[in-house]
Amino acid sequence: MTSPTPDAAPPAAKGPGFPEFVCLIAMFMALNALAIDSMLPALPNIGEALGVVTENSRQWVITAYLLGFGGAQIVYGPLADRYGRKPVLIAGLLIYVVFAVACAFAPNFGLLIAARVATGIGAAATRVLAVSIVRDRYSGRTMARVMSLSFLVFLGVPILAPTVGQLILTVAPWPWVFGVLAVFGAVVLTWAAIRLPETLHPEDRLPINARRIAGAFREAVTNRVSIGYTLAMTCITGALFGFINSSQQIFYDVFKAPELFTTIFAAIAGGIAVASLLNSRFVEKLGSRLISHTALLGFIAMGVIHSAVNLSGHESIWTFAILQALTMFCFGFIAGNFGSMAMEPMGHIAGTASSAQGFISTIIGSLMGFAIGQSFNGSATPMALGFTVMGVLALVFVLIAERGHLFRAKHLTPVARAS
Questions:
Q1: Within 13 Å and on the Cβ side, how many CA atoms surround 244?
Q2: 0.70 cut: is pTM over it?
Q3: Smallest Cα–Cα separation from 68: which of 373, 371, 369, 359?
Q4: Rounded to an integer, what distance in angstroms lies between the CA atom of residue 215 and that of residue 209?
Q5: How far apart are CA 68 and CA 306, in angstroms?
Q6: How far apart are CA 413 and CA 419, in angstroms?
């Protein structure tokens, strides 16, 4: 009888097989992507209906959600470590559905923003619990493969979400965009309630103890590998949020081509999907570090080239589409790998660590992205420069995590040593 591999651990209970498990995890992630990207075509309609005078102020519809999404993650991890993954997940999904409905009926912009914050608070459970549930079952390169495959399925949503939002607007007013979010959330909630077992063993549950939680958070933010890759992912996430905040205005105001927005946005997001698929095929053979470090250098190079094109006055809708797609292609090799490497040393406090990492990457990343978006000045230059700066900062944090070396093989994790 052979012993189990160090990268896989038996689930706490019987549940969905590998394909269904990957799809369910992807749907948790997709709830978040749909809540962001389906909004983009509706921003002008929302602004006009609710009296938003300054165009850049409409970006609060995106950023308010992200702040709620990031801030609440710090709470869900300890709750999940104490009460189990499933009940906390179900509670978060209920909050998501209720406040998506509240957004649809918001009578003014202030209440809409408040409801968006609350929707993000509910969605935060899916982010924390998705990572924790995967970490309960897998580690190392297998975990990276699960996350990459989930990320691939999830990426179908940002590819299609703006188109979905645009299609809704052709047959119904803007509140129905939020109505679709509520329906989708209810479907995922039902699926999880029926099919997802509890993955946290009873003996692994931890009491809610302020000192223990503080110690776990301190470990998560002081472990060199964990915090280094968390901050690197924060920078890359900030660049992505900068693109999301700016994209609608770039297509509508800079290129005067709103009819091409959903098509080109889908092509750009498709670059991430292709990279994620390739990553899932090669990560176990080549390793997370070799792939993601190479992609990060490519990400920086694309940012520099795109900035140069803008500053030289040669930017067009086609240079924008091609260079941004190549940049997002690099992003697809970075995101899942950085996330799994940040979690490598944190298996014994997966829920709390996931909360700390999600809180940092989303809150700071959303503020970075908001700063990039608010810098919109009628051109794509601020966004391109933002990508360059964020990529360089990410490289600094990776070098800190790796003690100044790139492309090294994976360090042994506590799971691997125990085997």
A1: 32
A2: yes
A3: 359
A4: 10
A5: 32
A6: 10
Q: Is 138 helix (H, G, I), strand (E, B) or coil?
A: strand
First to last CA, the chain: 15
Structure-block tokens of residue 85: 């993954």
Q: Which residue has tokens 């909630």?
A: 189
pLDDT tens column, 178-222: 999 999 999 999 999 998 888 787 877 777 777 877 887 888 888
Least confident of 95-104, 193-202, 371-380: 193-202
Nearest to 230 by CA among 359, 333, 330: 359
Q: Which two tokens mark 304?
A: 């520099």
pLDDT digits (tens, 9 = 90+) for 59-72: 999 999 999 998 99
Residue 418 CB neighbour total at 10 angstroms: 8
Query: By the 8 A CB rule, do 265 and 162 touch?
Result: yes
pLDDT at position 153, please? 65
d(CA 279, CA 269): 15
How far are the Cα atoms of 80, 81, 87, 212, 337 from residue 208, in angstroms, in the given order? 10, 8, 16, 8, 30
pLDDT bracket for residue 166 (50, 70, 90): very high
14: pLDDT confidence band, cut at 50, 70 and 90?
low
Between CA 140 and CA 337 the distance in angstroms is 10
Alpha-carbon span 128 to 271, nearest angstrom: 25
- Altogether, the residues listed in the chain come to a count of 419
d(CA 287, CA 144): 9
Please enumerate in sequence order all residues whose Cβ is within 8 A of that of 152, keeping only pairs 6 or more positions apart, or say none: 26, 273, 276, 277, 280
The CA-based angle 151-23-175, given to 5 degrees, is 80
SS3 of the chain: helix, strand, coil, percent, to 5: 80, 0, 15
φ/ψ of 8, rounded to 5, equals: -125, 145
Among 110, 41, 32, 16, smallest CA distance to 68 is for 32
Highest mean pLDDT among 119-133, 181-195, 218-232: 181-195
347-362: pLDDT as tens digits: 777 667 777 888 888 8
Cross-strand partners of 138: 8
